[in-house]
Amino acid sequence: MNISEKMKQDWDQRAQHHARYWIATENYQTEEVFAQSGEGTAQALLKTLGDLYQSSWNVLDIGCGVGRVLKPLAKYFHTLVGIDVSSSMIAQSKAWLSKHPHITTFETSGVDLCDFKDQSFDLVYSYVAFQHMPRPVFEHYLGEINRILAPEGYLALQLPIGPCCDVPIEDTIGIRSYSIQEISEKLHNNGLTFLKNTLFEEISANLSQPLDHRFHLVQKALPMKSDINVEWAQLEDPQHPSPLDMHLYEVYADKSVVLGEPQEGIRTLQSLVKRNPEHLTGWLRLAALLLETGQLQQALTTMRELTALHPQYQEGHAILQRLLEKYGKDKENTAQNIEWQTAMF
Ligand SMILES: C[S@@+](CC[C@H](N)C(=O)[O-])C[C@H]1O[C@@H](n2cnc3c(N)ncnc32)[C@H](O)[C@@H]1O
Questions:
Q1: Can you tell me the mean pLDDT for 200-220?
Q2: Domain check: are 215 and 247 in the same one?
């Protein structure tokens, strides 16, 4: 599996779980809240463009998701295109953007812009997408952005700039941040430059806040040749679990329980352990939640699966044993079973 395939697999799984959540983890609960957050991002983009803004521009959104930001931009630009590595995100974007025929979205490789001709866009933007991409992928996108931008075209770039931070290449969601030196150099190497009036000093002053969601304005300074047909190496450890991924699954499961939707929490914990069978606390929480909701048989099956996968996990065996003893005595789904589960885990 290479990095393009891995990004597709992971983002498809996230989109199939709950696209709105994986796009906007704080603003996913309802379509209204989600749409409002898109409006906020669109306004931030327009504010960044300021007087440079022209409605006649051809605009490209890289990593558009379901089109959260594209939709509120519909009334500001003649032509909008969104691309995403995930076919599932793109499928859902068709519904989200159905009333806006001048916005097109489609799935791409996630590593290049080979679907587009040279100099075909006036503005490219990307929001909370580049920060999840491995450095070589991001850098390759910069070369491609140069190629598809019109002379002196713009890139509105959202990227955490501050203390440098990286995660393994297999991690398709962990946050990467860049020092000013590194990002300036990468832009320069790809014929791009921060716009003079961009708030460089402000970036410097905020070095302690790498998780910055602001747009930074970049301009194409000189044309460069981009090598579209890069051979992406096979990943050495494609199963490597991303800690952020796992954490976000758990957060979603917790929120579901708090919102009175335990079945949604169960579905999420099942996805979590499917993605990472090594996640012992995920298994235990799943079994506990099954028990809590009176699904004793499923709780037993879960503990059996866990102990079969991890024969050395003594605590798991002990819990299963206690569960079997109790379940043997008391087969019915009673309130007593449910109370008893707290003592079990
Ligand atoms: C957190 S979501 C943000 C979506 C959208 N930009 C927004 O703000 O609503 C990140 C999106 O980037 C997409 N993505 C991740 N890696 C990508 C890549 N290499 N190329 C294109 N899209 C990518 C994911 O599929 C996902 O839809």
A1: 71
A2: no
Domain of 165 in residue numbering reads as 3-220
Ligand 1 close to Cβ of residue 142 (< 6 A): no
The answer as to whether 227 is a domain residue is no
Task: Give tens-digit pLDDT for 29-77.
Answer: 999 999 999 999 999 999 999 999 999 999 999 999 999 999 999 999 9
The CB of 3 under 6 Å from ligand 1? The reply is no
More confident residue, 236 or 200: 236
Q: Does a structural domain hold residue 174? A: yes
C-alpha pair distances (Å), 280 with each of 173, 246, 256, 293, 338: 21, 11, 20, 20, 22
Residues 30 and 142 in one domain: yes
Buried b (16+ CB within 10 A) or exposed e, 71-95: bbbbebbeebbbbbbbebbbbbbee
pTM of the model: 0.90
Pair 35, 137 in one domain: yes
Q: Is the CB of 68 under 6 A from ligand 1?
A: yes
